[in-house]
């Protein structure tokens, strides 16, 4: 497994993080791993990075990873759909006010200043052309605010003809596999993600698969 120490907000821009993740894919290729041996993985904001890195890698012909594995991914910078979701006031981690403030922050601060203000929008995975993507696994809590993002991403992927395994976990918190040492559900989710990685890299079983984590 390769974990990329990508540049983060607020010191850097989102495009810097994607650039660093692409450098991670290049590093894997330089060390003998083909795209079909790589699954790009990320949780929460790292889920956004996993989707955007894979899309960027395919667009630039750098690589086409074997899959994308995510937990509670942030996929929709527009807060409107999340604020209208049934979980808007149920999530124990994110409040509606905090979400709205974060959305304004993304739109006003952390985009390249050399671009016209009208075009300084965070690119949204749910609004991208998803047809080139490999199979995707998404795990999320049924009670979290980012369930809206997980459900919408799964819907858009399916509409684009892309396999998406959506796993919803009742009664869990955002990014619950982080607590796998105390949560049986977290351990099960990690095991399912491992099974997904093995499945999508099965064609290169004679070689060692690698996961690039966001």
TrEMBL record:
Keywords: Hydrolase. The keyword Amino-acid biosynthesis does not apply. It comes from the Bacteria. SUPFAM superfamilies: alpha/beta-Hydrolases (SSF53474). The active site is at 44. Belongs to the 'GDXG' lipolytic enzyme family. This is Alpha/beta hydrolase fold-3 domain-containing protein. It comes from Mycobacterium kansasii.
